[in-house]
Design brief:
74% helix, two-stranded antiparallel ribbon, mainly alpha
Length: 333
């Protein structure tokens, strides 16, 4: 079926279910939070293991991301064949229209920046420094809200952001395994995470609020852009020279990271739709804490006093920011 030139997006069913029009049970909400918690920790842990701690490391974050996106795209296509619905997320039968892809290109490019910078940061940093390097999302959210939407942030919220920035400075300065590459990638990841929330809203308008369509187009475009980026920075040469593709263990772990990458897309959508911003941030704060402790146990990550203090400030400031914004939203209502 070919699309007319104006490709009315109505051929894709809308999956928008407004939060105030649909009540979800506490069991569903609890399940979604736990689901997000487990999948997010598993993804970071497996990615770090593949890139730095396997007997045959695969230190190619961009190409690893491509493999994960291909696995996710395959799973989306299978679910689309059977019109599977996961709570509020529905994947349509696979279709790809170049004109629609061009309209979604800005959102897809931001998505590429977010996932690529995230894995590059994780490749060059231990998990504790990874948390610190990526802690500036709140700062960029405040800046982008003002620049793009003219929204001013309250002094109280800005003060909590100051706590995060202080933790970022202390944690970075005291990091024993400091890497400029990790720091730069972490800051970029924070920027793209903040920017992504803006572009996702625009993309959902184009796709009639169908998250499945947006994810499919993001993944297809991201595979192409990441392949070009991987080739331009010389990563593909190392990928071609990698000598352990014949190891079943390598493919099992890599496929597991792809499955987690697919599941985290669903988890993020569900946790945003089914929980309050406060619950969402509490889950994220708890996840960061458990993830760091897990890294100490599994990878022997060393955290000294100042580094740990900086990380705690980042986590505490993030939680405090969310709480302040939550109180402000209640006051407005």
């Amino acid at each position: 079926m070919s699309k007319p030139k104006d490709f009315p997006i109505s051929i894709y069913p809308s999956t928008l279910v407004k939060q105030q029009e649909h009540e979800y049970s506490s069991v569903q909400t609890t399940f979604v939070v736990i689901f997000y918690f487990v999948v997010s920790i598993a993804l970071v842990t497996l990615n770090k293991y593949v890139m730095s701690h396997m007997p045959f490391n695969f230190p190619f974050p961009l190409f690893l991301t491509i493999i994960q996106l291909i696995v996710a795209l395959f799973l989306m296509t299978v679910l689309g064949m059977y019109q599977v619905k996961i709570l509020t997320v529905t994947y349509p039968p696979f279709q790809y229209h170049p004109q629609l892809a061009m309209k979604l290109l800005p959102a897809s490019a931001v998505f590429v920046g977010m996932v690529a910078a995230n894995n590059v940061c994780l490749n060059y940093a231990n998990v504790a420094f990874y948390q610190i390097a990526r802690s500036l999302t709140i700062l960029f959210s405040i800046i982008l809200s003002f620049v793009l939407q003219g929204t001013r942030t309250s002094p109280r919220a800005i003060a909590t952001c100051g706590v995060v920035m202080l933790g970022f400075g202390i944690g970075s300065w005291s990091e024993s395994e400091f890497s400029w590459m990790a720091l730069g990638a972490g800051v970029l990841s924070s920027f793209f995470v903040a920017l992504n929330s803006v572009f996702v809203k625009k993309a959902l308008i184009i796709t009639n609020d169908n998250e499945g369509v947006m994810m499919i187009y993001n993944n297809v475009t991201a595979c192409v852009l990441l392949l070009l980026l991987s080739a331009s920075v010389g990563e593909l040469e190392g990928v071609l020279l990698f000598e352990h593709y014949d190891k079943p263990a390598f493919w099992i772990i890599v496929m597991m990271t792809g499955l987690c990458g697919f599941l985290i897309n669903i988890a993020v959508v569900l946790v945003v739709k089914l929980t309050s911003p406060l619950t969402n941030n509490i889950a994220g704060t708890a996840k960061a804490s458990v993830q760091t402790l897990l890294a100490v146990v599994l990878f022997g990550t060393h955290i000294d006093l100042m580094n740990g203090f900086g990380l705690c400030l980042c986590i505490f400031g993030s939680a405090l920011y969310s709480y302040v914004r939550y109180l402000e939203s209640i006051a407005r209502d």
